[in-house]
Amino acid sequence: MKKILIVDDDPSIRETLTSFFTECGFYVMEAPDGMKGLELVKWTNPDIVISDNSMPVLSGLELACIMKSQKMNIPVILISASDNTIEEASKLDVIAVMIKPINIIDLMQKVYHALGMLNCGVL
Fold first, then answer.
1. CA atoms of 111 and 35, how far apart (whole Å)
2. Crossing angle (nearest 10°) for helices 34-44 and 60-69
3. Is the pLDDT assigned to residue 104 strictly greater than 90?
4. What angle do CA 48, 54, 56 make, to 5 degrees?
5. pTM across the whole model
6. Is 41 in contact with 49 (CB distance < 8 Å)?
């Protein structure tokens, strides 16, 4: 079973994404900020990380930067309110930056593509 880590300071977004990805057969972990997300990455080695960019403690870009500097080869998808994030994210090998409001089906397709998987039944 593939593992997804959702990092977002908004509990309703974490709940929505967790529910959706769980229905598609993923094991989903959640973190309320980048620092807790980094701890989970180190302890659980998820297959992919989906992170909001703008969060207290540690942003999604900072999380991706630390992951890259520590040679954690885990794909990261950033969710951002601004397209200003795209250029910075490309330097960090972030596989996608999705601008809010996101389309959950588009997000799912990016996850499946990044993991080299076939689509789940909800698509």
1. 22
2. 30
3. yes
4. 100
5. 0.91
6. yes
User: Could you tell me which residues come within 8 angstroms of residue 13 by beta carbon, excluding any fewer than 6 positions away?
Assistant: 6, 52
Looking at residue 101, the DSSP 8-state letter turns out to be: S
Residues 99 and 53: their CA atoms lie apart, in Å, by: 10
How many CB atoms are closer than 10 A to CB 105? 12
pLDDT tens per residue across span 46-77: 999 999 999 988 999 999 999 999 999 999 99
End-to-end CA distance of the chain: 19
Domains of the chain: 3-115 (3.40.50.2300)
- What span, in angstroms and rounded, lies between the C-alpha atoms of 60 and 66? 10
Q: Side-chain half-sphere of 33: how many Cα atoms within 13 Å?
A: 6
List C-alpha distances in Å: 57 to 11, 36, 104.
16, 9, 26
Query: How many angstroms separate the CA atoms of 105 and 122, rounded?
Result: 9
